[in-house]
Amino acid sequence: MNFFIWPAKPGERIYRDSIPRPEMIGKPLELKAARNEFEGNIFGIRSNIDLHECRIEVSDLKGFKDTISKDNIRYGFIGFIPVSKNTPDTPIDEIERRAPIEVPDPILDLDSIDIKAENSQPCWYSVYVPKNISSGEYRGYIRIYSREGEAKIDVILHVYPITLPDERNLYVTNWFNVDKIASTYNIELWSDDFWKIFEKWIKFMSKYRQNVFLVPLHTIKIIEKDGKYVFDFSIFDKYVEILFRNGADRIEISHIAHYEKWGGDKILFRDFKVKTINGEERNINGSEILPHLLPALEKHLVEKNWIDKAMIHVCDEPTEIGIDEWKKFSSYVHRYSSKIRRIDAIETVGFEKFLEIWVPTLNHFSDWMENYANAMEQGYEVWFYTCCNPKGRYPNRFLDYPLVKTRILHWINYAYRLKGYLHWGFNHWGEDPFGEPRANLPPGDTHIAYPGKNGPLSSLRLEVMRDGLEDYEYLKLLEDEIKIVKRILGRIDMPFERRSIEICRRIVENITSYPRNMEKLLEVREEIVKEILEIKKKPYILVLTEPPEYRMIVEGPAMILVKGICEKDAQIEVNGRSVKVRDGYFATYVFLTRRENKINIRITKDGETKIIERIFKII
To answer: Per residue in 213-264, pLDDT tens?
Structure first.
């Protein structure tokens, strides 16, 4: 054989100089997924001779009962992005490789590729698991053809007996640049050709679980006629209709103002292009336009039944220096359009009464968590965002960071009950989307997708981001199953659904303490599946401990309160000791030590037994 194929470990990139461990050669590419989920991994091709016209062929995946058609499989060669310098302010143990490097990221739309001798070529394979198939094992293969020969790797897919919901329970927005699409594809903005390619991109983003989209204010055309301003919403409407047709849950209307200088205290209204009836065009400041535009926009959103799905930005990233001025502009927006919720990326605290959706950077959320938690308790919606920050030990989606740092972002969403995620850079590439990243930003910050010949191309980082969003849905599914059993047992007043947080915290101990490899994350995801299935089994039981399982406890002594609800007439034992059940409720306590740190709760009824385990960190 002139070349061989091998699967990467989950989350492991394959570089040109990557050499597989001998035990990986010949191993199948193995995946585990729920129904209604996308799951993928990297595999590599390596040869000791030049290979020409390499092509990828995949088979259907066949199970005992059902077959997953290869129409549900996506695959491709992975391209490389040159990175001449690493993300600054980051310890070397948080970087995957030292620059200069070529980082595998874009999943290319090439039918074939040549591979030089003694070089490794990374490839991508992913499968969508249909909702209507049976659980169990499915098998298929990947075959690589070249002029010099062929090779094959087996694929094994394990389908869990659970189904992810169609609905998205987390708000996700990556800001989309329409001008980049028009210029990259050399088409006129708002032309028929533009709308065709635009909808391709929106469908693509929706497939990757984005459900919130930025809508530029300049989609509303302004005409000056007889001393009045007339607003044409035709482009705005077409834009928004495409979004909602493709799964959007909300829209965010772009900013009405900007800071003169980042971090300063002076804010300027944006300008608007206004046409006269003679066809002339001039720029007019927002201070003159917005008192007319904002009420008209609100009225239009109400008429279109979009008002409950709409948000509007005031001015990006107010800091402590600029918050007082920002509040004046926020009040201005509210005065003219009080029904539209306000959303902004923020760099400080104290936005009560001036902002409905707060979006701090992840590092600010970590540092000022108590303030944001108080806002959540008052009913404000809190998200987080990443951009060129945070760096260091924080997770982010930079090219030179391990892929697990991208996936972990949405475990953080769940761990801290943050309702959404925002990033500015879906497609804000520079002159060459596949070239050297912008020197003034961390590598990869500008875009997470690439332009293909006929539409968007995914990337390893985007694939892994979707994995993290699907992980969020696993946790939410466990939470929902717990709520169902709570209703069955008739006790909805106790927070048993906190169990999903406990499991999430096995991965997210805090915002900078999380596994640096994917294997641990996948182990915990499998535990989530086991708990979902176990909760559904009889006899029904839900357990609550104080403190919760994820909290570190100091020995001396360590007393754990154990409370629960179960089916009436069930027998309960906690660490071998019988516990009295009163009307389906039980409670006791257990002393733990560093050596004996487990609690086992056994329930028995009508000959059926189930055991619940909790493991604590005792120091």
So the answer is: 999 999 999 999 988 999 999 999 999 999 999 999 999 999 999 999 999 9
What's the CA gap between 195 and 243, in Å, rounded? Answer: 12
Residue among 562, 570, 561 at smallest CA distance from 541: 570
Mean pLDDT to the nearest integer, 9-36 = 96
Phi-psi region at 490: left, alpha or beta (left = phi > 0; alpha = psi -120 to 50): left
Structural contact between residues 197 and 186, judged by C-beta atoms closer than 8 angstroms: no
Which of 60, 85, 254, 176 is closest to 446 using CA atoms?
A: 176
- What does the alpha-carbon distance between residue 355 and residue 25 come to, in Å, rounded to a whole number? 55
Specify whether the CB–CB gap between 446 and 437 falls below 8 A.
yes
pLDDT tens track for 549-583: 999 999 989 999 999 999 999 999 999 999 999 99
In DSSP notation, 453-515 reads: SSSEE-BHHHHHHHHHHHHHHHHHHHHHHHHHHHHHHT--SS-TTHHHHHHHTTT-SBTTBS-
User: In sequence order, what DSSP letters do the residues of 352-394 get, joined into one string?
Assistant: TTT-SEEEEBHHHHHHTHHHHHHHHHTT-EE-EE-SS---TTS
Task: State the amino acid at position 363 in one-letter form.
Answer: N
Cα(532)–Cα(536) distance, integer angstroms: 7
Average pLDDT over residues 9-20: 97
The reply to whether the predicted model has a pTM over 0.90 is yes
Cα–Cα dist 362/422, whole Å: 10
* CA–CA dist 280, 271 (Å, integer): 16
Burial group, residue 50, by CB count within 10 angstroms (0-12, 13-18, 19+): middle
Q: CB neighbours (10 Å) of residue 271?
A: 14
